[in-house]
Amino acid sequence: NxxxxxxxxxxxxxxxxxxxxxxxxxxxxxxxxxxxxxxTHLAIALGVLTAELGHRIYFTSAIDLARRxxxxxxxxxxxxxxxxxx
Length: 86
Prior knowledge:
Blueprint: H1 2-14, H2 24-33, H3 39-52, H4 62-74, H5 78-85
């Protein structure tokens, strides 16, 4: 979304730390607000890198994870489900 990118650039110019650079947390929070700025691409790239380093990864959407946890809670197996994810 071109407008989302334009708004993100405006935000970056508005909020700078004392060093003149956006603080990492602020940058991440702003990135999460706008559509079409590459959040999914970033998540996939981090997941691939993590897998290449030998770690297990699990990629899902927030809504699917919430549904999975709700079902596990209803079936009285939430602790087991959380343990499976960690």
